[in-house]
Amino acid sequence: MKVVVLAGGISTERDVSLSSGSMIYRALQKKGHQAVLLDVYLGYEEDPEGIFDRQTDWAAQIGAVREENPDLEAVKAMRRDGGRSFFGPNVLTICQAADCVFLALHGAKGEDGKVQACLELLGIPYTGTDFVSSAMAMDKGITKDLFRAYGIPTPAGIRLGKGETESTRVPFPCIVKACCGGSSVGVCIARSQEEYQAAKEEAFRYDGEVVIEQYIEGREFSVGILDGKALPVIEIAPKVGFYDYRNKYQADATVETCPAQLPKEKTRELQQVAEQVFQVLRMKSYARMDFRMDEEGQIYCLEANTLPGMTPTSLLPQEAAAVGMDFPELCQQILLQAVDRKG
Fold first, then answer.
1. Is 303 a catalytic residue?
2. Is 164 a known active-site residue?
3. How far apart are CA 19 and CA 226, in angstroms?
4. Residue in 343, 336, 340 with CA at minimum distance from that of residue 33
């Protein structure tokens, strides 16, 4: 098949997306597909005619993931047309010539349903869930509301808009995070009033609304979903601090155990809740749910990820590997699900 892998963009997760896209691109090549890796924002300046037949190593043009946030203003300055459209030159034209678009985007405009809606209007098959569930899962406030409505265990908390005063105070320690952020960018733990104020300022740098919730002391887990069914549970244990941006993408910063060392009944409980979240948020194809478990064994679902990372240190590929599915086969399954859904 002719496949466009869309990565990059102008979210705080740009570099992670480029790394995901590079891995997906190489995996699809191994499966025999005519794959092209495009930066959705920078696009392709040359004549796109016959682009799928060109002998170009698209992944070689992608750098390694940075340890800090990308310089988005420098990226925007690279657009010759001033960047009025999110889609770079020839991106949609090339996508329309493909059999499917494999979305490797993360964060704003990539995971929030906007790109998905555009592709759907153009009749272009794409991987992952649709624009409705993408939008609901991206907004942590909406996600929390749905969790509570459907009885999904989740930490107690509130939403707070910029300039608003808290009607209810969440006891310390608490987590403060941007409502529509990702990769733990703009996420802080506050254990004092001073830390709380600093955490709010940091989160409001990324969004006009933040979520403030109870911090659950204990263990952290993640459960991937593929075609509606839960994969093995993985445990995440950062060597220092919590599972923030640096610990997610810096090699050897976190100990990840898959399958997680848990009693069978607790493993199944995590998997069942993950599958329930998948259904409640009306997701399709694949996703990943993040959890905390306190010292008493109570689990709490933190959030859902509609386009989970596909980098060398990402969780979903590790979970798939635990059931004998290597990375190229995982990408193949995700691709085929998108084509079958369109058909």
1. yes
2. no
3. 21
4. 336
Distance CA 206, CA 186 (A): 7
Q: ∠273-132-335 over CA atoms, to 5°?
A: 80
Q: 14-72 pLDDT, tens per residue? A: 988 999 999 999 999 999 999 999 999 999 999 999 999 998 899 887 755 554 567 88
Has 288 been annotated as catalytic? yes
pLDDT at 147: 97
Give me the pLDDT at residue 55, please: 85
Tokens of 58: 């698209």
H or E segment to which residue 34 belongs: strand 34-39
DSSP 8-class letter at 88: -
Q: Kindly name the residue from 249, 285, 292, 319 that is annotated as catalytic.
A: 249
Catalytic residue, chosen from 288, 292, 300, 314, is 288
pTM of the model: 0.91
- Per annotation, catalytic residue among 13, 207, 244, 269: 13
Q: What is the pLDDT of residue 83?
A: 87
Instruction: Enter the tokens of residue 55.
Output: 């002998």
Helices (H), the chain: 14-30, 72-76, 91-96, 114-121, 131-138, 140-149, 193-204, 245-249, 264-280, 315-321, 327-342
- Mean pLDDT, all residues of the chain: 90
CB 313 within 8 Å of CB 321: no
Instruction: Please confirm, yes or no, whether 195 is among the known catalytic residues.
Output: no
Q: Among 39, 112, 290, 319, which one carries the catalytic annotation?
A: 290
Show Cβ contacts of residue 218 under 8 Å, excluding neighbours closer than 6 positions. 292, 293, 294, 295
**Can 247 be counted among the known catalytic residues?**
no
Give the DSSP letter string of 187-235.
EEEE-SHHHHHHHHHHHHTT-SEEEEEE---SEEEEEEEETTEEEEEEE
Confidence at residue 108, expressed as pLDDT on a 0 to 100 scale: 85
The percentage of the chain sitting over the pLDDT mark of 70, rounded to a whole number, equals: 91
